């Protein structure tokens, strides 16, 4: 056998083996790469599935929170019952989502569809709630306007009542009698003016009821009070009293006169029967429940 031919055969066998080894290495490397790639894709899909599940959980939580928030803004019992029912459905989906695996893409997809249905229902409730809210706001505005009108009416009525009272008071004041030109003369036993207390027998009090077209006419009882320096009233009888400002007070002398709205001169007398001390005395005149005049005078020894 030719040694050279044998050597060539050995070289060809070795070349074929090397090629086979290279091909095998390439196949193994390609398979490894494919497996790694598949594993990476599976890992990426798992991460995406987890994110998808988390997003669904967030959306369900958000929807449940919206239901809870709207429940505090409405007072319609029927609508509130419907909101509670729909919120319970959302909570049921939340419980189920917590137990389902993120790789269960089919069930998660079904839960997404149910969520979308609940969202549509929620949008319908939102429209109703907004409508009720607008109606409530309009009613509140109408109520406030009515209250404002009522308050203005009350204020106006109160103002008119005050003005009426003030007008009545002015009319009452205008219709009151007025005693003017009040004069007090101490007289002696001869009817002459006395200068000394021991000579005085009588006080003569004269005054004029002024003209007043708004005052009532007819018989008038005029009361006169003579006050001593110590503010004690001169009286003949402790039973001589009349009503003034809700009280019964003493009077010294009274007189019935006929008043016709024109000036009326009046003279009244007080007989001095008691001891009088020097000092300043005062005469108060009353008629129709009002004090209509006052005058002070001084007595010397």
Task: Give a brief outline of the structure.
The protein is an alpha+beta fold and 301 residues long.
Write the layout of secondary structure elements.
Layout: H1 3-71, H2 77-99, H3 105-175, E1 179-187, E2 202-209, E3 218-227, E4 241-244, E5 247-250, E6 253-259, E7 264-271, E8 279-287, E9 290-299
Antiparallel strand pairs: 1-2, 2-7, 3-6, 3-8, 4-5, 8-9
Explain what the structure shows.
It is a single chain. The protein is of the alpha+beta class. The protein contains 3 helices and 9 strands. Strands 6-3-8-9 form a 4-stranded antiparallel sheet, with no helix packed on it. It has a 3-stranded antiparallel sheet with strand order 1-2-7, with no helix packed on it. The radius of gyration is 59 Å and the shape is rod-shaped.
